[in-house]
From TrEMBL:
A molecular-function term among this protein's GO annotations: transferase activity
TM helices/strands, residue ranges: none
PROSITE patterns: CBS
Organism encoding this protein: Halorientalis regularis
A matching Pfam family: CBS
UniProt keyword Transferase present: yes
Superkingdom of this protein's organism: Archaea
Name under which the protein is recorded: tRNA nucleotidyltransferase (CCA-adding enzyme)/CBS domain-containing protein
Alphabetized PANTHER family for the sequence: CBS DOMAIN-CONTAINING PROTEIN, CBS DOMAIN-CONTAINING PROTEIN CBSX3, MITOCHONDRIAL
Keyword terms: CBS domain, Transferase
Stretches assigned to the CBS domain: 13-66, 74-126
SMART domains in the record: CBS
Protein backbone atom coordinates (compact mmCIF):
# COMPACT_ATOMS: atom_id res chain seq x y z
CA UNK A 1 0.00 0.00 0.00
CA UNK A 2 1.43 3.33 -1.01
CA UNK A 3 0.85 5.77 1.86
CA UNK A 4 2.79 8.81 2.91
CA UNK A 5 5.36 7.76 5.49
CA UNK A 6 4.85 10.63 7.92
CA UNK A 7 1.04 10.60 8.08
CA UNK A 8 -0.04 9.44 11.57
CA UNK A 9 -2.63 6.72 12.17
CA UNK A 10 -4.90 9.26 13.91
CA UNK A 11 -5.56 10.95 10.55
CA UNK A 12 -6.91 7.74 9.04
CA UNK A 13 -8.43 5.72 11.91
CA UNK A 14 -12.14 5.36 12.54
CA UNK A 15 -13.69 6.71 15.74
CA UNK A 16 -15.40 6.01 18.02
CA UNK A 17 -14.44 2.40 18.69
CA UNK A 18 -17.48 0.15 18.81
CA UNK A 19 -17.24 -2.34 21.68
CA UNK A 20 -19.31 -5.22 23.01
CA UNK A 21 -19.26 -7.37 26.12
CA UNK A 22 -18.10 -10.99 26.01
CA UNK A 23 -21.64 -12.24 26.61
CA UNK A 24 -23.12 -10.22 23.73
CA UNK A 25 -24.99 -12.52 21.37
CA UNK A 26 -23.72 -12.82 17.82
CA UNK A 27 -27.08 -11.60 16.58
CA UNK A 28 -26.76 -8.41 18.63
CA UNK A 29 -23.11 -7.97 17.59
CA UNK A 30 -24.03 -8.39 13.92
CA UNK A 31 -26.79 -5.80 14.29
CA UNK A 32 -24.34 -3.39 15.92
CA UNK A 33 -21.88 -3.88 13.07
CA UNK A 34 -24.57 -3.41 10.41
CA UNK A 35 -26.01 -0.30 12.08
CA UNK A 36 -22.55 1.28 12.42
CA UNK A 37 -21.44 0.14 8.92
CA UNK A 38 -18.31 -1.48 10.33
CA UNK A 39 -16.70 -4.89 9.98
CA UNK A 40 -15.15 -5.35 13.43
CA UNK A 41 -15.94 -4.88 17.12
CA UNK A 42 -13.63 -4.87 20.11
CA UNK A 43 -14.77 -7.39 22.71
CA UNK A 44 -14.16 -5.99 26.18
CA UNK A 45 -12.62 -9.14 27.60
CA UNK A 46 -9.37 -9.66 29.44
CA UNK A 47 -7.28 -9.81 27.37
CA UNK A 48 -9.15 -7.75 24.81
CA UNK A 49 -10.31 -9.51 21.70
CA UNK A 50 -11.82 -8.60 18.36
CA UNK A 51 -14.69 -10.07 16.38
CA UNK A 52 -14.81 -9.43 12.64
CA UNK A 53 -17.16 -10.15 9.78
CA UNK A 54 -14.74 -12.92 8.78
CA UNK A 55 -15.29 -14.55 12.18
CA UNK A 56 -19.03 -14.58 11.46
CA UNK A 57 -18.48 -16.15 8.05
CA UNK A 58 -16.20 -18.80 9.55
CA UNK A 59 -18.79 -19.68 12.21
CA UNK A 60 -21.53 -20.08 9.61
CA UNK A 61 -19.26 -22.07 7.26
CA UNK A 62 -18.47 -24.45 10.13
CA UNK A 63 -22.24 -24.85 10.58
CA UNK A 64 -22.16 -23.53 14.13
CA UNK A 65 -25.46 -22.41 15.63
CA UNK A 66 -24.71 -18.70 15.60
CA UNK A 67 -27.99 -17.89 17.32
CA UNK A 68 -26.70 -19.57 20.49
CA UNK A 69 -23.15 -18.16 20.45
CA UNK A 70 -21.69 -15.06 22.05
CA UNK A 71 -18.88 -12.84 20.85
CA UNK A 72 -16.51 -14.64 23.23
CA UNK A 73 -17.14 -17.87 21.30
CA UNK A 74 -15.73 -16.62 18.00
CA UNK A 75 -13.48 -13.65 18.83
CA UNK A 76 -9.72 -13.54 18.40
CA UNK A 77 -7.37 -12.19 21.06
CA UNK A 78 -5.90 -8.83 20.08
CA UNK A 79 -2.26 -9.53 19.37
CA UNK A 80 -1.23 -5.93 19.03
CA UNK A 81 -2.46 -2.38 19.09
CA UNK A 82 -0.91 0.71 17.55
CA UNK A 83 -0.55 4.24 18.84
CA UNK A 84 -2.31 7.12 17.08
CA UNK A 85 0.98 8.89 16.25
CA UNK A 86 2.50 5.84 14.54
CA UNK A 87 3.12 6.49 10.83
CA UNK A 88 0.59 4.76 8.56
CA UNK A 89 3.37 2.91 6.75
CA UNK A 90 4.38 1.21 10.00
CA UNK A 91 0.77 0.42 10.88
CA UNK A 92 0.24 -1.11 7.41
CA UNK A 93 3.38 -3.21 7.92
CA UNK A 94 2.04 -4.37 11.30
CA UNK A 95 -1.25 -5.38 9.66
CA UNK A 96 0.65 -7.39 7.07
CA UNK A 97 2.95 -9.00 9.64
CA UNK A 98 0.00 -10.11 11.79
CA UNK A 99 -2.26 -10.95 8.82
CA UNK A 100 -4.85 -8.59 10.26
CA UNK A 101 -7.43 -6.40 8.56
CA UNK A 102 -8.08 -4.37 11.72
CA UNK A 103 -5.83 -2.81 14.36
CA UNK A 104 -7.19 -1.26 17.52
CA UNK A 105 -5.57 2.11 18.23
CA UNK A 106 -4.71 2.79 21.87
CA UNK A 107 -3.22 5.77 23.65
CA UNK A 108 -2.05 5.40 27.25
CA UNK A 109 -3.91 2.07 27.42
CA UNK A 110 -7.22 3.60 26.29
CA UNK A 111 -8.90 2.61 23.02
CA UNK A 112 -9.16 5.70 20.83
CA UNK A 113 -9.83 4.29 17.36
CA UNK A 114 -9.74 1.41 14.93
CA UNK A 115 -7.60 1.24 11.81
CA UNK A 116 -8.80 -1.04 9.04
CA UNK A 117 -7.62 -1.88 5.56
CA UNK A 118 -10.73 -0.05 4.39
CA UNK A 119 -9.56 3.09 6.24
CA UNK A 120 -6.20 2.84 4.46
CA UNK A 121 -7.91 2.44 1.08
CA UNK A 122 -10.17 5.44 1.76
CA UNK A 123 -7.14 7.51 2.78
CA UNK A 124 -5.43 6.59 -0.50
CA UNK A 125 -8.45 7.88 -2.45
CA UNK A 126 -8.22 11.34 -0.84
Amino acid sequence: MNVESDVPVRECMSTPVETVATETSLVEAAQTMRNASISALVVMSEPRSIVTSTDFVDAVAKERDVTSLSTADISTAVVTTVEPDLPLTQAAATMTRHDSSHLPVAEAGELVGMLSKTDLARYQED
